[in-house]
Structures are given as C-alpha cells and as structure tokens.
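Hi R.,

Here's the chain you asked about this morning:
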Amino acid sequence: MKLAESWIEHVPTAPALEGFHDEVKEVDELDEAKDGCGGVVWQPYVLKKAQTSNKQLHELAREIRGVERRRGKKLTVTHYRSIVDKWEAASRPFLRPGHDYFTGLLAKLDCVTVPKGQTLQAAFERAKRREPPAKVLVVRNEGVRVLASLCRELQEMAGNQAFMLCQMSVAKLFGHSDHKNISNWIRALKTLGVLKLAEAAIPNARAARYFYVREMLQACQRSADGLLAF
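And here is the predicted structure, written out as tokens:
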C-alpha cells in the first residue's frame, strides 16, 4: 500500500496546456493589429484596369461586411481607413486623381445587402427547410410560400437595409425559364403584406429592393393604430 502511495506521489505531471487557446487568439489579434485591416483580405479587389473602381469597391465592401458578420461585430473607422489606404496604394495607376475613394467605400458599405460568404443559393436552401411565414399559409402554391421564406432569409442577411430581389436570378433558383411567375408571386406577397417596395427597379441597371414585413412589426403597428383610434 505504501509502495502504491509512493508511486502516485512521484508520478510526473504533464505540462499544463492552459493558455494555449489564448496564445493562438493573441497571435491572431497581433496579426490583425499589425495589418490594421481587421482581417479583411483586400488584395483581390485591387484595380487591374481603369474604370473598374465602382465594381471593385462594391465587392470590397461586401468582403468587409462578410468579415464583420463572421466576427460578430463591425470594424472600426480606423480599420476602414487602413483598408482604403492600402487599396489605393496598390491601385494607384488606375485611380482618378483627386477622387475621394474613402467616402466611396463608406457609401458602398451602407448599400451591401449580401455580404461575401452569403449567397442567394444558400439562402434559398435555408428557406426551403424553414416553416413559411404565417401570412402565406393561406396560399396553396408552394412556390409562393418558399419565395416568402426566401425574402425572410434575405432580410435577415441585410439587417435593417432593403434587400435586392432580382427576378431572373430567383427564377433560376426555382427552375423557371423566365421571370413571369416570380413577378406575379412578388405582387401576391405585396398584396398579403409580406413585402414592401423600398426602391423600384431601374431597367438594365438595378433590380428592385424590398423590405420583408415581419409579423411582429405588423402586430405592433396594429396595436399602435388601435390605441390611436381609441
């Protein structure tokens, strides 16, 4: 018995692994601090030719919002400034002299509806798995129900901003050869109070933007209207 106790007392202890995760985290934070860009990979959006800054800045804004979504918090203005400074330095040969690209990026960030890493197809797959909004249960058409769920997904991705709904892209998701059915479904959802038009489409330029009207907001609005009427 004493022998066993003696053996237990002298068993060498394994090196402590405490702090290992924190050290990795610290390294990541140091890398981000050294780069100053908050983990945003801006290099793929450097200009390679003239008259492409508008598109590339928009894609860079989507990249930033994607990083912010994964981090669970927004980057700082200092991060934005650092990203633009590095992007401008690398894109210098194709920039317009005197143009304010920093303000341009800030404006683009406000317009992002689908951050990088979040696609329409992924939103469609999630929409098919979720229960349709209560407002559309009266409709027997399964396509209309799924479209309502898709709009809910897109609104969640866009936050408080309006989301873009390209009828041709949505038609492809449903396997339709044209967008006529989608156009009718959207009108039906507007009639049901599921969708609210935010910005009309600009032909050959931009798809329409919508807000998904959440049931809770509708209930609150009805309650407020009732109080005012009383």
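One quick note: The first helix runs from residue 2 to 9.

Cheers,
M.
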